[in-house]
Design goal:
single chain; 94 residues; four-stranded antiparallel sheet; 4 strands; 19% helix
């Protein structure tokens, strides 16, 4: 799976775009680093290795919703943006 691995200091995150197994911990080793993403830097905030991303997608790797939206935004793949569905918190009734 192609997904983001958080790095950086407290309140100053940056992310690595990595390929790793879905069940594996993101703070451990990844198979390969495919680029990086810094949401606080608007000009040079993202750098992706397009050839390697397309290679892994051709081998059957799936991108997380956030990474898929980044790839669509930067014209690496085509498609519609994915809306991430989150579970609503259950409210206990007394």
């Amino acid at each position: 799976m192609i997904r983001l691995a958080r790095r950086g200091k407290k309140n100053k995150p940056f992310y690595r775009v990595v390929i790793s197994e879905k069940a594996r911990d993101l703070f451990g080793t990844a198979l390969e680093t495919l680029g990086h993403y810094n949401p606080s830097d608007k000009e040079k905030g993202i750098e992706l290795n397009k050839d390697r991303i397309l290679y892994w997608l051709s081998k059957g790797a799936q991108a997380s919703p956030t990474v898929a939206n980044l790839l669509i935004k930067h014209n690496i793949v085509e498609g519609k943006k994915i809306i991430k569905k989150t579970a609503k918190k259950k409210v206990e009734k007394k």
